[in-house]
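Dear colleague,

As promised, here are the two records you asked about, laid out in our usual form so they can be pasted straight into your sheet.

NAME FIELD: protein one
SEQUENCE, THEN STRUCTURE:
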Amino acid sequence: MAGCVSRVELTVSCRSLLDRDLGSRSDPLCVLLQEVGGGRWAELDRTESIKNSQNPEFCKKLVVDYYFEKVQKLKFAMYDIDNKFFDLNDDDYLGGIECTLGQIVSSSVFTQPLELKQGKPAGKGTITISAEEIKDTRVVYLEIEAQNLDKKDFLGKSDPFLEFYKQYDAGMWQLVYRSEVIKNNLNPCWRKFSVPLQMFCGGDFNKPIKVSISDVGDTTSSDVIGEFTSIAAKLSETGDHVVEFECIHPEKKQKKKSYKNSGIIRIKSCKLETEYSFLDYVMGGCQINFTVGVDFTGSNGDPKSPDSLHYISPDGINEYLIAIWSVGSVVQDYDTDKLFPAFGFGAQVPPSWQVSHEFALNFNPSNPYCQGIQGIVDAYRQILPQIRLYGPTNFSPIINHVARFAAHSAQQGTASQYFILLIITGGEITDLDQTRQAIVNASKLPMSIIIVGVGEADFKAMEFLDRDDGVLKSPTGESAARDIFQFVPFRQFKNAPREVLLHMVLAEVPKQLVSYYKWQGWPPVKPPEIKTM
């Protein structure tokens, strides 16, 4: 396969979208898909959802690997998000376009009318996409507060949020960051945040930067409080002191001679740091440890029956084996010794025939390691006729087992070991509260958890654990330190190329690994050489 030439960030905005909501405007979100062959499309990335806007400017950049010698067909699909949980099948389609990445990168700004179907115009709305190559790994970290902002709400104060824009060709402004909203506060202090230097100012510290503060609207568009324009170099002059800027509302300044400002924006800190990538850690010596857990509960059915999820077909496969091979074949390349612990749960195990939720697939509890992915497959095949499928479907014992190893590694204080636990299950979880607690505990460790659901079971509890919409909490209310959980229903990818399944299963792991070491402040064991400006 040809090597990736570069990575590009795609910035998306729209104008005059269809309005699907009654009593308010649409809440649009953009989904980026790539053609994977045979007329099939796989999701690559998605933006945030913006409330009540027919002219959204999306802050989240869509990142794509760019290959010069490949035709990369992309689809940009706009949806109106009406529910807390995003569902392509339930939410209103506002239109989209199909194009190639080559068309986008060869245009300074790529604008097209939206279509409801290919060749059928939506009748309203355009999409604009611009591309920028990712060339710099440095990141700008900022701490910002404001004082004495104008009151915008009739019955309250203001609900302010920040937006940063950089200036590009022809004097146009491009949104690069949008902060969280702070409710009912005229003296807000926003959480420390980071923006890649490339995105922030294109690496040019003399590039104009516009900072805007607005009051979020419940049913209408946001209301601007004020703004200021400066350069990146001026923001970074904080050092040991705060840099202040007047927050100016352009229309008020024009109309009122007595107008001073609409508040003060205070840059408490603006620092430039290096952002290490997944490859920086892997190439710098981080080993990825892969563990497999297999569900042997009775809900899978008798392995001798063709209806069983554990039934091995005449060609030697079943969904469990496909999942092990698919994920393991990728992960094994990052582990030098190729020794992988593998466990079963939910079965009666000889000789005592007690139910176990943490037994070694090779029946060797003191040395549960299998040699390579083939070793896991061989152990699975050998153990299947020797155990009795039983229940219930408990995940927490295996999660806690791997977490103990991850905790021991974390005590070393270096980015040297990361753990991935793959659980393959055919049944609905029965120890949900214990599993929630186990995941929250594991979120503080160098560890990711992937669950692949096989068969036709109801996996609603899994979808509850995979909280892309918010933060998972333990039964006692403790929030997960970071997102480490990924659930993938195998049935959605039965007829898709293996690459599609792999993308859904493993796409989150690199950023989960980076997020852990960034949270701990640990650089790679062997950091790369960083070029200075």
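NAME FIELD: protein two
SEQUENCE, THEN STRUCTURE:
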Amino acid sequence: MTNLFRRIFVSTSRCFSTANKIKIVEGTNGEQIICSPCEDASYPEVTLPEYVWRNVNNYSNRVALECGVTGRKYTYGEARDNSNYIARSLVKLGIKSGEIVAIILPNLPETPIAFLACLEADAIVTTVNPNYTVSEIAKQISTSGAKAIITCTEIAANVATAVTSIWPPDAPFIVVDDGTQTIPSGAIKFNDLIIKGKSLPQVPPPSRLPNDVAVLPYSSGTTGLPKGVMLSHLNLVANMEMYDKTVGDGFFLIRDSGQEIVPSVLPMFHIFGMNCVMFPRIAEGSKLVTIPKFTPESFVSVLESHKVTALVLVPPIFLFLSSSQLVKKHHLENVNFILSGAAPLSNTDVARLVDRFQMPFKCSQGYGLTESSPVAFLEKSGENPASIGNPISSCRARLVDLETKKDITESGKSGELWIAGPHIMKGYYKNEKATQETMENGWLKTGDVAYYDENGDFYICDRIKELIKVKGFQVAPAELEALLRTHPAVQEAAVIGVPDARSGEVPKAFVQLKKGQKTTQEEIENYMKGKVSDFKELKGGVTFLDEIPKNTTGKILRIKLKQEHVK
């Protein structure tokens, strides 16, 4: 999120509470600011590599990174040294301070090493989805202006094709040997950078400051064209400290091994896998078991081979745990807690997992955006996993009425969620128009509709652009989707609005059935009647799909459903 936080909101004489956990102060411009129940966090003003490696000597012999497929691994000492050697080689290759390097890698043990090496070389990293098409890769390389690429043998040919017409012949094209293909002719071997870097001069002291851009991930584009999100070193460091201040010592617990063990299944190119798993867990000396691509077999193999102590997931993988016969009770017996984010999770989803294994899992849900580095809210008690909880330490929030544009200060009333703090992005890369549309006086307009209940717990209703308007009433797709998933035959569901002559729009459901299950449109429609108000009923019908389309973090691609199924 953006960086303007430091004391920009000086509360005036008014400070009151409307619920157990809700503290509202009046800002300098009359804003009704919802504060975190936690004390503000302090954070060092350092670069990201300095923060991540600050305690590395305390556990240099521990395994830091291990491939969940091949078993290749690096200790913390090796990871730190190799990152430094690569940084030296990148400087030797001509990468200058502030230039952009594109990392196009799945979750490999080398991915964090490459990432931190680029930052240590004073470069900016833009992360590219390795599953992108040739044209999508070419577009991000072109719009970001990347001067070097780091990829792997599995996708090197695709990446090379993508940049053929836009890539200077002498620009560094670096390839990690992941054991799947041969390294293309003319590419620079990742391991050669390590070997050569050992004999090169140490990198010069960083000229970029903590407030300078460190990472340029691109937003998902599910509600618009992808945009480069400018996150500074300070944004990312602050967010890690804000999260730690919020949870205290209750989440990540060292087990008998003396080390936390976390599967790294969330893609590291995405902010959730990047700054909720990769950077903070390395900074704390955890062991990351990398999974290049989620498959039921690869994920369960990691659970079988490692005494996993914590899981950070997206809802589709969470639902997999509760439904797949591949997952056994002993796979989860060392798990201290499960954190879900990126898309809504319901209480019934959690209850299904708890009931299946009869284990008292601590399941919590968080909320954030790429633009907020990413964590903004967290339900840390584990007692109400459908809620996103409260603003984390040092995060401020507002609820703004969609019609009147006035701040909301009462429970049960929904509005657009605005947030501010030291974790807010600097803006969108070379896109001032989008920045101005999204930012207002330091506040990030999330585009998400939220409310809080009488206990002060927050809930996300939906995206503003995805709300269904039935005769003027707003219907949240996520609410109907959660109900549909309680049907015994339903594996997953998506709901969109379709045009209707009388109502303007009506809800239409897309349903993915569990393996071996059968039902009918009429039965699904009748199942929803009585559970929702009349205007929320599925009067747009029900369509059965083999699979509900989602992006890499589990968000339902409702826009794709509209494009393909609404004429």
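A couple of things worth noting about protein two: The first strand starts at residue 15 and ends at 19. The two ends are 38 Å apart (CA to CA).

Best,
R.
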